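Review session, final week

We close the course with one last complete record, chosen because it touches almost every idea we covered. It is Alpha-1,4 glucan phosphorylase, a protein from Hirschia litorea with 822 residues. Go through it on your own first, then we will talk.
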Amino acid sequence: MNKPQKGLPRPEPRQFDSTVLAKEVVERLTYRIGKDAANAHKHDWLHAVILVIRDRIIDAWIRTKKEFHEDKGKRVYYLSLEFLIGRLMRDAVSNMEMLEQMQEALSSLNVDLDVVAELEPDAALGNGGLGRLAACFMESMATVGVPAYGYGIRYVNGMFRQEISDGWQVELPETWLAHGNPWEFERREFSYEIGFAGKVEAAEETLGTPAKMKWSPQERVVATPYDTPIVGWRGNQVNSLRLWSAKPIDPILLDQFNAGDHQGALRESNRAQSLTRVLYPADSSLAGQSLRLRQEYFFTSASLQDIVRRHIQDFGDVRTLHEKASIQLNDTHPAVGVAELVRLLVDVHDIEFAEAWEIARETFSYTNHTLLPEALESWPVPLFERLLPRHMQLVYAINAHILKKARKIEGFDDAAVSAISLIDENGERRVRMGNLAFVGSHKVNGVSALHTELMKQTVFKDLHKLYPERINNKTNGVTFRRWMMQCNPELTSLIEATIGADFKDDAEQLVRLNKFADDAAFQEKFMEVKLQKKIALSNHLKNYCGAKIDPNAMFDIQIKRIHEYKRQLLNIVHAVALYDQIRSHPELDWAPRVKIFGGKAAPSYHNAKLIIKLANDVARVINNDPAVQGLLKIVFVPNYNVSQAERLFPAADLSEQISTAGMEASGTGNMKFQVNGALTIGTLDGANVEIKEHVGDENIVIFGMTAEEVAARREQGYSPRDVIEQSKELKQALTAIQSGTFSPDDPHRYSGLIDGIYEHDWFMVAADFDSYSNAQRRVDEIWSDKKLWAKMAIKNTANSGWFSSDRTIRQYAEDIWKVGLK
């Protein structure tokens, strides 16, 4: 087939007029879906609407790609195992500034945009904060003009769909792709082979240069890309999210199938497809560890091959890669890319190891998201060497280069050298992916000011000593387009009527709201919006999970991944203690409170799943006790995801950010609550520290030990049992849980969980309980003063603008990527 001739006219950009939109929706319904309006179902209308919006996005997408190609500037490549993008239709129609026109168009067809929008499935491409941050960053890069591509995996089932059965979490497959995905485009012309296992031999033509080797993989799969357009604000730029799907070289062994071995004939196909089936397969077994490592290498290798191919196509010489490409590693999942890029440069493009290493190091940068040593990925050396034999050679070569350098520096003793080594020799030998990402990057950033300083003092102490200029801070942010303008249009309209529309382009303009914090008329309007969102959430939860809650009560919300360091357990224990106090002292003026939880526990994380069960057991008892009716209620929202979050954040009165100090890298839920006018109760952890700085001490409720105090207490020999004995309120709550008050069917269900608090309490639940309880009493006092609460809520929204992901991305672009903005 002949290629289209250059200079052929392009179609005229499509119009945004509501009459034109209505006509096109009917055309898509007829000619793309095969239905007329009279017989169309809601999901048919959804598909037709998406196609009409998508056509206008494509105009901007093609223009953006053309500008990238003509500009010849530096590009950013964001590698992440997760992109929790959620539903895209409302995001896209809002950013393309066609929401009102589309609503009017559909209204003329007797269709409600809000009703059909609810049918769009959440893209199951992430789990929690890491993936949602990547999604916010992709949107912000398009908004501020960073020429960028995102790379990840096109999961068929994602993490899992959470159901609650008898209070227990049940994991079911998330079938978001069951009916196709109208937002994506297959790009099979950019498929790549990915290899695993096999043998490595010296390349015949360079026998005198052992650095160049020939890897002959035993297993090969094909990575095929699917591109999704990511629209920036006002549709000025549309970037690409490229997700990889795994396909077998031979989908079926026909001879074997015809011989009757039907399962065996599909073995290779099933093995390939397992790579992109599930996010975070359980790694408690060797098979699970193998699959995780295979997933990470699969998407990283495909992405790097694509980046190198694009660079050579546009710039010619692979040696200039670091001048034209900046690759950001979002956590350690794509860290194997450091060795993979060196392999591509050395074995495929004939570059000497020393030069290849410098190119790679200048190209990569790495974002660290955790201070937990066990969360910094590492792989058993035998597993790594079996699956990636050439990469193991290169890891050893890189390690030798780093350790020789360290040995020459005064003060690097054996312990320091051991700490920076890419190979952990303590016990089972393991490849440290965090160390590989660190040494293979020219910049390493933390995601809040506190986190970054603690990185230097803890997990990367010795690497920081070796490379003192490498660590920098880039405090996380969130995209206000989704987390206020789209999910809280009522608040957006109020703010626009009060201070004008400039904040839509520059979130820091929200500071102009500060002068209205004491204005009684504005306070009333602000709190009326909050009540509207609470009523909407109450109605939703009644229909969604049968929960009946009073919108006039305080909505006290903790929604995030279930993990012991995030301390949902502290919140639940407080609920039990509060339950006791309300029953014991009914004469006191208690603030009506609804505690709302949401989040998923990793399938193999026993204690996290037990905490979910405890939350539901406590809810069952408290919610059915007439003694506390109207004063305390507990709700666990099943299958917490982006769409649920869009309802919960705007309705929150109180934001629970109560992690053990020094353990949460940043958090972004705290920022989404803040912009929607919730007060934060929290520890001085992660970005809470910076939120406190921006809103002022008087507009946040802080409790508990600092990170330094936590570390000191552990070092001095912390005795949780003594603390519990001295706190009557805490002891009563723990005794009630441990004795089976909330689990009469199994009185010993929570014995181990509570014993853990008595015996070691690593996450300082007991140590911080009294402080937390007192802080909650302070919250009750503030709630009783409606004017004070309104003022504090307004102050939180007014001072949230700095936490925009646009600000974060501009800092990445200037300090790390060195890329110009439009």
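Two points worth writing down before the exam:
The mean pLDDT is 95.
DSSP finds 34 helices and 23 strands in the chain.
Good luck, everyone.
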